[in-house]
Write a structure and sequence with these properties.
It is built from nine helices and two strands; from the N terminus they run βαβαααααααα. By secondary structure, the protein is mainly alpha-helical. It has a two-stranded antiparallel ribbon with strand order 1-2. The longest helix has 46 residues. It is flat and about 80 Å long.
């Protein structure tokens, strides 16, 4: 991997650095509950601090950095340059794939929550339903028709099915009212606000009474998945400039060595340049290894599992 580092789980967390449990006002149920949550948070923080490590780039270890500032820097540059270029390409591919997923999941979740079939740009792993004829796919084609929407491998619903299992005019009237602005229509920011609330399913049911429980779960799963993928896009975008800067520094060092411009370099200049390169490499490793939430590939779109990821 691009970053390497060890770690382990800490033992029992130390007590809080301040004691307020003996205060008279700390005896109330609310205060006791708050202190209990505070002790839990302090335990998580203490264990994370005890398990903290200093990650490093596997493609640019200290030995490679030493070689770049040794007698033959030009010969030491090709390997880390190739690895850094490959890392940048991988981050760009990952970011582009995640952006496509986020756009598709947003289209699918909003369309389903607002009473229509899942509509959005197709992508392997999510493949939302293609639009069928009519407003919000009101007039779904029969199975086997060449115009029937393709469900792909995105779970939830049958091709041509009307959300909620309803048929007839009530759902049609609801969809037309949403399209005409007479019924509330969800937008992404509101959907995210509903997602993080404690009564998300009930709030979705108020906005769309035709949404089944399974479809509400589907909407919330897609919303959580797109938020977690957006988090990874943000991390990749933070790392890419660091990769490019580090690549430029290594390439410039090799170019200056090949052109003979390092012959007059003093020991102080060499030490300063090496320190700068080491600091940049450590910064990139830390950015790649930053803990973040993630979605397991097997659960994408069906209640992904969140956890901590490094790299």
């Amino acid at each position: 991997g691009p970053a390497a580092g060890g770690g382990g789980k800490g033992g029992k967390a130390p007590p809080l650095p301040f004691i307020v449990s003996s205060h008279p006002r700390a005896a109330s149920p609310v205060a006791r509950d708050m202190l209990s949550r505070l002790e839990t948070d302090w335990g998580h923080h203490s264990r994370a601090k005890a398990a903290r490590t200093s990650p490093r780039l596997a493609c640019l270890p200290p030995s490679n950095i030493d070689a770049l500032f040794g007698p033959r820097p030009a010969a030491a540059a090709p390997a880390p340059l190739a690895a850094l270029t490959e890392l940048a390409d991988a981050l760009r591919r990952l970011s582009a794939a995640d952006e496509t997923f986020v756009n598709a999941a947003a289209h699918a979740a909003l369309a389903l929550a607002n009473g229509g079939p899942e509509i959005g740009p197709a992508r392997p792993g999510i493949d939302p339903v293609r639009p069928s004829p009519g407003v919000f796919g009101l007039f779904s084609a029969r199975r086997g028709d060449s115009t029937a929407p393709a469900q792909g491998n995105i779970p939830g619903g049958e091709p041509g099915a009307i959300p909620g299992g309803s048929t007839g005019r009530p759902l049609l009237a609801h969809r037309l009212c949403v399209a005409g602005g007479r019924e509330p229509k969800l937008w992404l920011e509101l959907l995210i606000q509903i997602y993080i609330s404690s009564d998300a399913q009930n709030r979705l049911a108020v906005l769309n009474p035709f949404l089944s429980s399974a479809e509400a779960d589907r909407v919330l799963d897609l919303t959580g998945a797109l938020l977690l993928r957006a988090s990874r896009v943000s991390q990749a975008r933070r790392c890419l400039p660091l990769v490019d800067e580090l690549t430029d520094m290594v390439a410039r060092r090799a170019e200056e060595a090949s052109a003979g411009r390092l012959e007059g370099e003093t020991e102080q200049q060499r030490r300063a340049a090496r320190t700068e390169l080491s600091v940049r490499a450590q910064g990139l490793a830390a950015a790649l290894a930053a803990p973040r939430a993630y979605v397991e590939a097997a659960n994408t779109g069906g209640g992904g599992a969140a956890g901590e990821n490094r790299g």
